[in-house]
């Protein structure tokens, strides 16, 4: 009989988690059913209960669960979660706190605020805590984000990347000036995330464009895909600023890239690079979307095994990325009901939601009801024009690294087929 009981509990846990994952604007009867299942799982299988609580909180943070359902869940689960939160040693307490904070339970908000500010919490825990506070429109959230972005110690670097990720769903106009005020002191990967963030909303993009116009931030910090995203806002002030700074932005592939590939081939044939310095260049630029030798983010292909079959293929992929685009790597630009513009690769497209893989490896989930428009780009998510973002020596260093079939520290590393040693 024990095996039958165990099997029944597993089925209940699976059903509760699946119901939590699908929870949207459900009727009250469905909320009651979900709550009843969840309470059974809490008593019988804490590990599955943790998963259920996390899925419910995630769906609320991504706006897949609407206000009516949230209110019904709060009414039905307040007592159950309150008991868990009161038990300091209960293993479900952290997840119960995060869920209850989303419907602005005062005790939960206080506990989540403490996590967001605590140096003893991990970077991931603090990111989720801050995202929860922002979703709950807690007035202390922006001040907490500002305190972390304002730190200049090395320990703050991973925290700052998490803060920028958490801020992406907020709507506060103060976020643009806040991020720009700390931009120069951010690590390279955080600066890339900051640009991705600032180009998402028109209110944040305008101060960014003003700083580019004044020379405080280089135009080269934005790729052509960022500029196209700016234009997708449809804002006349932004269109005018883009025209002054970049001129006309091409929507299709630039055939002149073929000539550029020839120029880059000549440059690389005449200039030696340092593969170890090339690792730094890769991390700063390419690693936001690509992995190599286990390092970087998996948005586009892992170039350890893709795109480097020959030197000519690699040259074309880097400098003429829109020449050939695999179906899986066709970028989508999504405009949302709350005013964001997001560009990335589709990880999921269902009746419930659209999930994009964006620069930095982050998954952006948009409730299907919140998608105003989605456009397939004619161009690769990998932007044209990296030669404008890198100095010639940085290009040489990058290619010295990526033309090796193994990591430079591997004594068996060899050049990929067709690659040649520079003449100098």
Characterize the structure shown.
Helix 10 (175-182) runs parallel beside helix 12 (202-214). A hairpin with a 3-residue loop joins strand 4 (341-349) and strand 5. The protein has three domains: 68-246, no CATH class; 257-321 and 384-402, no CATH class; 330-380, Roll (SH3 type barrels), CATH 2.30.30.100. The N and C termini lie far apart (78 Å). It has 19 helices and seven strands. The chain has helices at 2-22, 28-44, 46-61, 67-86, 93-102, 106-117, 123-135, 141-149, 157-167, 175-182, 188-198, 202-214, 224-231, 236-246, 257-270, 275-284, 311-319, 386-389, 392-402, and strands at residues 291-292, 295-296, 330-336, 341-349, 353-357, 363-367, 371-380. The chain has 424 residues and is of the alpha+beta class. Helices cover 54% and strands 9% of the residues. The longest helix has 21 residues, at 2-22. The strands form two sheets. A five-stranded antiparallel sheet has the order 6-5-4-3-7. It has a two-stranded antiparallel ribbon with strand order 1-2. The relative contact order is 0.08. It is globular, with a radius of gyration of 24 Å.
Arithmetic mean of pLDDT: 86
Largest sheet: 5 strands, antiparallel
Uncertain runs are 1-16
Number of strands: 7
What gross morphology would you assign?
Answer: globular
Class per helix and strand makeup: alpha+beta
Strand content: 5-15%
The H/E string reads HHHHHHHHHHHHHHHHEEHEEEEEHH
| Side-by-side strand order of the widest sheet | 6-5-4-3-7
